[in-house]
Design goal:
The protein is of the alpha+beta class. The mean pLDDT is 89. It has an eight-stranded mixed sheet with strand order 2-1-3-4-5-6-8-7, with helices on both faces. Strand 1 and strand 2 form a beta hairpin.
Length: 202
């Protein structure tokens, strides 16, 4: 892991990037949490139940070659069900990363937390917005494409019609086994960035 300073942003810049994850009609009233030396801290208290943050590279799949890329900035706005049941994994993982735990130890402890029900169960309807034109998803993905993410239990049976010819729903294999969080992340591309400007079609 690079020095923590390489992962940090100024508070104002991080707030702006976090808000850009979703249209202003959503993010304007959202709670904003930013990364500090010892974890995420809420710096703006919202009123619509959404929470916008900027995730760092360690929220990528364990073992991925860019897991420690300090340039990665994934801006997300979680809807209320996801803020309650998915975002806690981001906070917990981040705390362990900043405490210096290895990937192997983090996996072990997260599995224990799930088994002991120390983290909330996934709520129905959990989703997030990832529509920032400023996000950086790493050297291999860059700004990629604006999309929505829907969370479900791990499944191999195509419950969402994902990855079928003509289907707009993608289930990236590297996120299928998003262990130990036991989540499947389904992505739906959208045609514009959060500011309303058109996005390139990949």
């Amino acid at each position: 892991m690079a020095p923590i300073a390489q992962y940090l942003m100024t508070e104002s810049a991080e707030i702006a990037l976090a808000r850009s994850a979703a249209p202003a009609s959503i993010s304007g009233d959202a709670t904003i949490a930013v990364l500090k030396q010892h974890g995420y801290e809420t710096v703006v208290k919202g009123k619509n139940g959404f929470v916008c943050i900027v995730e760092r590279s360690w929220m990528s799949p364990f073992g991925w070659r860019e897991f420690w890329n300090p340039k990665m900035r994934g801006a997300l706005c979680f809807n209320p069900p996801a803020a309650r049941s998915v975002l806690p994994f981001t906070y917990k993982r981040t705390e362990m990363i900043l405490a210096g735990l290895s990937q192997e130890k983090i996996i072990e402890r997260l599995k224990q937390a799930v088994a002991r029900k120390e983290v909330p169960a996934l709520e129905t309807g959990a989703m997030s917005y990832m529509m920032s034109r400023e996000m950086n998803l790493g050297d291999s993905n860059g700004h990629w494409h604006p999309h929505l993410m829907f969370y479900g239990p791990q499944s191999d049976n195509g419950d969402m019609g994902n990855d079928l010819p003509g289907s707009p729903v993608l289930l990236n294999p590297q996120f299928q086994n998003h262990a130990p969080e036991s989540l499947a992340t389904y992505m739906v591309m959208v045609t514009q960035w959060s500011d309303g400007s058109p996005a390139p079609i990949h």
